[in-house]
Amino acid sequence: MEIARKPYPSDVSDDEWALIAPYLTLLPEDAGQRDYPLREAFNGLRYIIKTGAQWRAMPHDLPPWAAVYQQARRWLAWGCFEALLDDLRAVLREVLGRSADPSAVIIDARTLRSSPESGERAGYDGGKRKKGSKLHIAVDTLAGVCGHRAHADGSSARKAADFLGCCRGRR
Q1: 105-139 per-residue burial string, b: 16 or more CB within 10 A, e: under 16
Q2: How confident is the model at residue 170 (pLDDT cuts 50, 70, 90)?
Q3: I need a labelling partner for 47 at 20 to 30 A (CA). Which of 17, 38, 131, 137 fits?
Q4: Which residues contact 103 (CB under 8 A, 6 or more apart)?
Q5: Beta bridge partners of residue 111, listed in sequence order
Q6: Mean pLDDT, to the nearest integer, of 105-127?
Q7: Is residue 3 included in any domain, yes or no?
Q8: Same-domain status, 74 and 105
């Protein structure tokens, strides 16, 4: 499909789109409820991410911000980006002569301070003496992201491994 507008630097290339389109297509292209092409919705999402603009500041030659936001929420809910990341990590590992599934992961955590308005979302991290949200991330030995989770309680890395779904059977 040709774009009838001047492309933005954040627009997805044809090669990139060929790679990611199967992950983002939740319905057939001719689905009746689709008002805007998926590629343009993805271009809108990339514009917001790349520029850091507010949703309502989306340029008028891209789909409306509400349509892009709604489609991005669908992609997130269906785990489209996680599936793409998992497959890319597996391909990279195989290209480097490793097993597709990592045998070891590294778990790191940080606590983001919260504001008084956070209420119940904020937990307490006794080790760092901070009130806020705890972020855990797991990476394999090649720095490929295996999982991430944000939660309120100050749980340990061992509990985080269960949250992240990694290191199954490896204790």
Answers
A1: bebebebeebeeeeeeebbebeeeebbbbbebbbb
A2: very low
A3: 137
A4: 170
A5: 134
A6: 69
A7: no
A8: no
In a domain, 1, yes or no: no
**Residue-range definition of the domain harbouring residue 120:** 99-164
Higher pLDDT, 56 or 115: 56
The terminus-to-terminus CA distance of the chain in angstroms comes to 51
Q: Is 147 among the domain residues?
A: yes
Instruction: Compute CA 106 distance to the chain's CA centroid, rounded to the nearest angstrom.
Output: 19
**Angle (deg, nearest 10), helices 38-51 and 14-24:** 110
Tokens standing for residue 41: 């919705």
| Number of structural domains in the chain | 2
Residue with tokens 């627009």: 11
pTM of the entire structure? 0.73
Q: Could you tell me where the DSSP H helices lie in the chain?
A: 14-24, 38-51, 65-78, 80-95, 157-164
